[in-house]
Amino acid sequence: MTATLPETAHQQTDKADKYARLIQPTRVHGSLYTDPEVFAEELERIWYRTWVYVGHESEVRRPGDYVRKNIGPQDVVMTRDRDGEVHLLLNRCAHRGNLVCDAPSGNSNSFRCPYHGWTYRNNGDLLGYPYNKGYGGKGKLALGLGRLPRVASYQGFVFGSFASDGPTLTEHLGAAAGELDRLARLSPEGEVELTAGWLKHRTRANWKLLAENETDGYHPQFVHGSIFSVTGSPIGALYSDNSTAVTRDLGGGHSENDLRPEFRRFGEPMRWFGTTEDRVPQYVARMRELHGPAAEEILVEGSPHVMIFPNLFIAEIQLFVIQPLAAGECVQHATAIQLKGAPELNRRMVSQCVGSAGPAGMLLADDTEMYERNQRGVALREPEWVDIRRGVDRERTDDNGFRIGTATDETGMRGFWSHYRNLMEA
Amino acid sequence: MTAPATTDDTALDLRQVEQFLYREARYADEHDYDAWEALWTDDALYWVPAGAPDGDPVQQMSVISDNRSRIATRLGQLRTGKRYAQSPPSHLRRIVSNVEILDDDDAAGPGRVPGDLTVGANFVLVESRERGKEIWAGRTTYRLRLVEGRLRLAYKKVVLVDHDRALPTLSFLI
Predict the structure, then answer these.
(1) Å from A22 to nearest chain B CA?
(2) Where are the transmembrane segments (chain B) (predicted)?
(3) Residue A348 above 90 pLDDT?
(4) % of chain A surpassing 90 pLDDT
(5) Which residues contact A157 (CB under 8 A, 6 or more apart)?
(6) ipTM higher than 0.85?
(7) What is B8-160's CATH topology?
(8) Does the CA dihedral A195-A371-B130-B72 come out positive or negative?
(9) Which of B51, B84, B167 sits opposite A202 (nearest CB)?
(10) Contact list, B169 vs chain A (CB under 8 Å)
(11) Range of the domain at A368
């Protein structure tokens, strides 16, 4: 090390070296999942900097609505003020740091801290404080709730960034924005709603094991073979060695399992939903009425299977939010997607999502078992590395310039790690 | 011992009911899937709410919301031996207590048939797995029915004390 560099530059170089060492093109080091120092650096460089998905506008539909959300360990209150603007406030009183909001959701134009009665407007402004002569009178304190400096939404999906500047949400989403469009267009009214409530699944594993698994098309036949065999589900075949589906690195750490080639091959409306059009006749009729001949493509191609970096995963009919809490702990929040104007689908999506997701889910409990065993495994000393080379030699570039692999290739993981490394070295 | 201040009929009913609940609990603790499945009626509903304990399971997310067919699917998956969240199986023991016959139609859940008996009880359950030990506790509402002289289970609702918190994997029969 050169003695002439100032200390901060030293640390920068160390960090860059560290992540260049730990993240290689076809393997990543096990300590990335277990080291508390790495986790602390991730909070600073990813979770408290980049755009993170927080909530959906349908959860705070009316002025005054609020809902408790989070960014990693940060307790965030998403509110809608009387002008209709959505805010992301930190649940911390400016006086002594107490929690100002204790309900999971509700409707209120203000929050009153229970400790000394300080009151805040639902845009974070300090409204008042008792016995104000002790502060020189009313309106003398320029304090307020902490708030995320940047809040933006796309198709009703609300994202927040702790950084005052940086890439815009549109830049952050890049090609992943198109996947949210694809989801929204499945609603006859063009709107997604997240109104079915949440399952919260405590997971003793590092958040990145989840993010990597979301578009891992290699595992379903093995981890989920038990449920596929009992139900005769055709999902397994989508992720077989013969599948025409592709895994796509969408850039920016986002990735997808693009199942459309398989659905187009069959050309059957609603096959993506595991059903046929005669089972959801009103929905299909409404979509055809709205879109004319273009409806066929929408009804055949269905919903995306996309992981939006770092914490939003949309799996056709359900949506997951990853909340990291420590190197070895996170919570998966899961809900059924609801499409405005599609009651026939909504009821089925709740039923299917309850069957598959959450602590007792017939899919997700097994995924989570894998995450937790994996977490114990990567803590073992040898062979140190986690291998992500699958499909690297058959990967190609598609017409839009994205890297794609087969349905079972680790193309998505390599994209995730490449973006992760950029952020951690920044 | 002094007899409890109830009629003989009720006392007998309660003892039968308790024996049934204990047996159901033992089948679940010991992963006796066939015996447990045989307890259910065809219109069965097995429900573990999430979030609000009295939400609508048709419109709101639940931890478990199984009709008879989905109970069969769940047990079928467990029987493959490759339901990894339960393979190897958890070691389980639960205490069922505070058993009461409830005179409350609201607690009976949907699909009550005349003659069905609604019963409430509390439970504490210890689960031991390689991952660690979990303590589960809650309130169970059962709806029981006499079918050809045998008690059967038509409805089981389990409200966990942790219903609105993040839960670890719950892959055994609760």
Answers:
(1) 27
(2) none
(3) yes
(4) 94
(5) A53, A56, A57, A180, A192, A312
(6) yes
(7) Nuclear Transport Factor 2; Chain: A, (3.10.450)
(8) positive
(9) B167
(10) 201, 359-360, 365, 368-369, 372
(11) 175-425
